[in-house]
């Protein structure tokens, strides 16, 4: 049986994601010129961009109301994640890890929306003339957290895992 981890470990991880996200965004704003790529490899640039919308700049040109809409959604989701983490059994690992990553990312981007009115993006990945939308550490944490959540649900639904967890 796995050793129990206290809930605060997951909150600390979320806090570390927030701090790393805000530090890297601050450095991007300090050292990068808006919209001017700094080429690091043939497929990876640092390019400062601002996103007033959601993922893939969804609703970025909606006139300003989206800032409050997406902030409200982030506050609700973050609150749910905090409670969900608190209620998980201490022996679980994958699900709380995924929730902590999503929580840290959500709060990192929420901070930008509330303080700056937009999210700071600076990581640019591309190949053969095709560019993935710029993103940041918070976005990466949310994406990895969502993938781990899916993996956790797939592992939890395996028949051998269900039998092993069946108390009867």
Provide an overview of this structure:
Helix 1 (7-31) packs across helix 3 (94-116), helix 2 (65-87) packs antiparallel against helix 3 (94-116) and helix 3 (94-116) runs antiparallel to helix 4. The chain has one domain (7-158). 29% of the residues are buried. Helices cover 58% and strands 12% of the residues. The two termini are 18 Å apart. The mean pLDDT is 86. A 4-stranded antiparallel sheet has the order 1-2-3-4. It is built from 5 helices and 4 strands; from the N terminus they run αββααββαα. By secondary structure, the protein is an alpha+beta fold.
Annotate the secondary structure layout.
Layout (H helix, E strand, L loop, with lengths): L6 H25 L6 E2 L4 E8 L13 H23 L6 H23 L2 E9 L2 E2 L5 H20 L2 H7 L3
Antiparallel strand pairs: 1-2, 2-3, 3-4
Helix pairs in contact: 1-3, 2-3, 3-4
Our measurement of the CA-to-CA distance between the termini, rounded to an integer number of angstroms, reads: 18 Å
Strand share of the residues? 5-15%
Helix % is 55-70%
Shape: globular
